[in-house]
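Hello,

Our lab assistant flagged a job as stuck in the queue for most of the afternoon. It eventually completed. Since we weren't sure the result was trustworthy after the delay, we are filing this so someone can double-check. Below is the sequence as submitted and the structure that was eventually returned. Let us know if re-running is recommended.
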Amino acid sequence: MKTTLITCRNVGYISGGHMILDGITCSFEAGQVTTIIGPNGGGKTTLVKLILGIEKPTSGAIYHRADLKIGYMPQRITIDPSMPLTVKRFLEDKRALDIVNGRGLLNLDMSTLSGGEMQRVLLAYALQNEPDVLILDEPAQGLDAEGESQLYKQILTYQKEHKCCVILVSHDLNFVMRNTQHVLCVNRHICCEGAPEKVAGTSCFKGMVLPYHHHHNHTHDLKGNPIHG
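-- returned structure --
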């Protein structure tokens, strides 16, 4: 039986007189990987902020199961290099580094970390309270193919071992089709949702992918990167 952890009911959000999200109704289940896709400016990150409580809905409501623990990995954080901050001081629970194979980073200064190292530390930060829900906003942004593969592997390994809910904002349609049980396509409202194979056959999904087709034998993801195979 499915256990619903988070429910959005007719959620809307207006900012600066502009409708960013309108009529969002969806739910997120325990043990499920949900990927939120959609065009830039479509409201994906705003939906994440509403779920986290960083922003408040203009209309509708969001419900969390009681005592829900949420871990959040943002796209990026800004570190002031003039304020020394080691990884050890940044993390409350150093054991989380073991999950991401990052124990060797413990004494490094946060401002000196490479892109891949920073993403591992941010993932460790999100995991340190053993969350019921892990929310990640484009976690592989700026990583090369190898770094992206390793990061997704660590996320999915943790998800399978702990049966937690993962909510992931991503432009990587290959990842979506391979590793997601539930897809939300958001462009101000929910254009389509469901299992990847179901969503892939809808006009809204094809409308996002088709503009990137051309005469080479591949398509592009939503960032314009080629998808082979």
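-- support follow-up --
The delay was a queue issue, not a problem with the job. The result is valid. Residues 4-222 form a domain with the Rossmann fold fold (CATH 3.40.50.300). Residues 145-162 form the longest helix (18 residues).
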